[in-house]
């Protein structure tokens, strides 16, 4: 029991000693492809030694540990470009062919079983602004039609306008996805880049985001943002839209056809009714004209007969005296009536 308490106190003391070291972190700038070496003092009586790496936005990662003069990379960190050495009161780290993903803070630490001390910290900044001035971002697809439950893959590619060179691919922590929903002025969801690939043949850096659409809130435009050389490059966006069901389209087409047929029938029936009404009116007018003509003809015949009869019915006493005159009057009257009949 007393031994456990002593171990806890020693561990607490060791942590406090490590935190109380007020060293400033030095900054070193390099271009991609350069070599860089970091060195720090380590007393000879320090049995244990370690190197740590802290990338922006990530937890501290143990790169190598050593006992006395031998240092070995950890299982979680294995990169042949990194070399660790420990010699006379000194421990060093050399990075060959620096990449953008090497941009981080490096710490050296050494000590005994009871006391570990962080000696120095080094900030490595990889500058490649001249090359990145000709870099641009492309997103595919521009738009995708999906339904809830579907999974789609969005791609963000970093290209260089110079065909002879390829862009230095940033680490995944420098690439993010965000979604802008309809009617929203701020990004609603933030994603870290996943499934990045370095396509040397096409001279591009490709980042993928696999997105499963769960509900309507997942629809919108997804943008890819790449932080590189103090700038943020933004892609054109990939829009996820609702996929129209084929049955809905078919039903919509059938409904449209039905509406067209109904409207055509309405116009046809209305036109027939108007035509029938016009023919009825014309027929009635024609019948009235015929009736009027017949009536006038009958009246005319009746008048002619009456005139002719009056002309023929003379008194017997006056026949001899007015025979010649009567004959002339009669024929005159008949002739006049004949002319009227001819005119009719």
From TrEMBL:
Record localization: Cell membrane
Highest taxon, organism lineage: Eukaryota
InterPro entries with a match to the protein in the record: Ig-like_dom, Ig-like_dom_sf, Ig-like_fold, Ig_sub, Ig_V-set, TCR_complex_component
PANTHER family to which the protein is assigned, alphabetical: NITR9 (PTHR19433:SF127), T-CELL RECEPTOR ALPHA CHAIN V REGION-RELATED (PTHR19433)
Membrane spanning residue stretches: 248-269
Signal sequence annotation: 1-18
Protein name, as recorded: Uncharacterized LOC103471752
SUPFAM superfamilies documented for this protein: Immunoglobulin
Residue ranges of every copy of the Ig-like domain listed in the record: 22-109, 133-226
Native source organism of the sequence: Poecilia reticulata (Guppy)
Gene3D superfamilies in UniProt: Immunoglobulins (2.60.40.10)
Keyword Signal set for record: yes
Keyword Transport: no
Keywords: Cell membrane, Disulfide bond, Glycoprotein, Immunity, Membrane, Signal, Transmembrane, Transmembrane helix
Cellular component terms per the entry's GO annotation: plasma membrane
Record-level GO BP terms: immune system process; response to bacterium
């Amino acid at each position: 029991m007393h031994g456990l308490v002593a171990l806890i106190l020693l561990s607490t003391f060791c942590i406090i000693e490590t935190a109380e070291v007020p060293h400033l972190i030095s900054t070193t700038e390099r271009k991609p492809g350069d070599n860089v070496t970091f060195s720090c003092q380590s007393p000879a009586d320090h049995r244990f030694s370690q190197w740590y790496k802290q990338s922006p936005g990530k937890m501290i990662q143990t790169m190598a540990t050593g006992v006395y003069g031998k240092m070995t990379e950890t299982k979680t960190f294995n990169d042949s470009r990194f070399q660790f050495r420990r010699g006379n009161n000194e421990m060093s780290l050399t990075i060959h062919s620096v990449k953008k993903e090497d941009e981080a803070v490096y710490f050296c630490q050494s000590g005994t079983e009871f006391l570990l001390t962080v000696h120095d910290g080094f900030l490595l900044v990889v500058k490649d602004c001249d090359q990145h001035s000709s870099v641009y971002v492309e997103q595919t697809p521009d738009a995708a039609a999906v339904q809830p439950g579907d999974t789609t893959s969005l791609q963000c590619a970093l290209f260089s306008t110079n065909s002879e060179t390829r862009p230095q691919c940033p680490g995944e922590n420098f690439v993010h996805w965000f979604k802008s929903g309809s009617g929203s002025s701020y990004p609603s969801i933030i994603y870290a880049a996943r499934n990045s690939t370095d396509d040397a043949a096409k001279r591009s850096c490709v980042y993928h985001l696999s997105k499963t659409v769960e509900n309507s809130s997942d629809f919108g435009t997804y943008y890819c943002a790449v932080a590189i050389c103090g700038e943020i490059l933004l892609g054109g966006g990939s829009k996820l839209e609702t996929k129209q069901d084929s049955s809905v389209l078919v039903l919509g087409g059938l409904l449209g056809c039905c509406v067209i047929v109904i409207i055509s029938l309405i116009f046809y029936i209305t036109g027939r009714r108007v035509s029938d009404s016009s023919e009825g009116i014309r027929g009635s007018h024609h019948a009235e004209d015929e009736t009027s003509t017949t009536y006038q003809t009958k009246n005319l015949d009746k008048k002619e007969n009456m005139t002719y009869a009056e002309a023929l019915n003379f008194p017997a006493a006056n026949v001899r005296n007015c025979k010649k005159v009567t004959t002339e009057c009669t024929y005159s009257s008949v002739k006049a009536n004949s002319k009227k009949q001819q005119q009719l």
